[in-house]
Write a sequence for this structure.
């Protein structure tokens, strides 16, 4: 039995979970999320909790069991509290700011980089070297943070670039002089 999949998901106060066909909808104070669930997985919404049941013990269904439970749990956590990822900008003269909804980054190129986030994502810059990506959809928050990091990933000689908060960049030794 899947250790994650067999755990019931507690539904907090003020959050509604309903299943219509293969779609599970979660409504809360921060918004509404929908997720299409594989038709083999059975989702039971009972009083105050959600259970995910798999039809058989084959490898595919065991893999889907934990995944389905995690997706539903992330939806509930998202509409309750939301998710955020922090990015750090390292480099002399590297900075970012939000103008309207657009993120404007000066990260060592001859031109500024403009990034418009998708709907449901809020980008903040509390300091010029920190970018905070917030939203209720965990997958979308991670994807947007990865896109921003992709503009200038940290390089291994000086460590300059955009990195996740707390990410360790192993630095290489430079060219040895003769």
């Amino acid at each position: 039995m899947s250790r994650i999949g067999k755990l019931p998901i507690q539904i907090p106060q003020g959050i509604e979970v309903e299943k219509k066909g293969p779609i599970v909808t979660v409504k809360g104070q921060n918004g509404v999320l929908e997720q299409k669930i594989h038709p083999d997985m059975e989702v039971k919404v009972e009083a105050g909790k959600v259970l995910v049941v798999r039809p058989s013990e084959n490898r595919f269904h065991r893999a889907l069991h934990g995944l389905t439970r995690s997706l539903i749990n992330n939806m509930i956590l998202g509409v309750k509290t939301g998710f955020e990822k922090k990015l750090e900008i390292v480099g002399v003269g590297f900075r970012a700011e939000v103008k309207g909804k657009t993120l404007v980054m000066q990260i060592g190129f001859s031109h500024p980089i403009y990034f418009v986030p998708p709907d449901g994502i809020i980008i903040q810059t509390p300091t010029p070297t920190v970018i905070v990506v917030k939203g209720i959809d965990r997958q979308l928050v991670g994807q947007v943070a990865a896109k921003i990091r992709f503009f200038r990933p940290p390089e291994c000689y000086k460590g300059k670039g955009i990195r996740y908060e707390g990410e360790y960049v192993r630095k290489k030794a430079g060219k040895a002089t003769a």
